[in-house]
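Q: How would the C-alpha cells look for this protein?
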Amino acid sequence: MNAGWMDWFARAARALDAAGLDAHTLLTFVLMGVLTMVARSFFFMSDREWTMPQWAQRGLHYAPIAALTSVVVPEVVMTNGQFIDSLEDARLAAMAAGALYFFWRKGQGQAVLGTIVAGMAVYLPLHIGLGW
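A: Here is the predicted structure in C-alpha cell form.
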C-alpha cells in the first residue's frame, strides 16, 4: 500500500475512535453484511431451480413459531435474568389466558390475533390496575 492509503486509514481510525466506534467492530459489521448478501444471493445466481428435501421443507413450517417462542418465553418467565419467584405476575396470567383462547379457537381462523388480544386483555388490567 502506498502512503496515501495508509494515511487515509489512520485518519479514518482516529475519526471512528473519536465517535466512540472501534474500527474492528465496524469492520465486523461490514463483513457480516457482505457475508449475508453473498449467502442470500446464491439463490439468484444459479441457472437452475433449487429444491429442498421434503424433511427440510416440513421443518421450515415450524421456524416462525420456534423463533417467536424463543423470544417470548424468556420474557414471560424471567425478570432481569432471574426466574420469577411469585405467581402474582401479570405475565403468567396473560400467558394462561392466551393459551386458553388459542386452544379454544384452534383451527377456526384468526387464532393468533385472538391469542394476543386475549393475553393483553388480561395483562393490562393486572399490570396497570393492580401493579402486578
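The longest helix spans residues 23-45.

The helical segments are 3-18, 23-45, 54-60, 63-77, 90-105, 111-129.

Upvote if useful.
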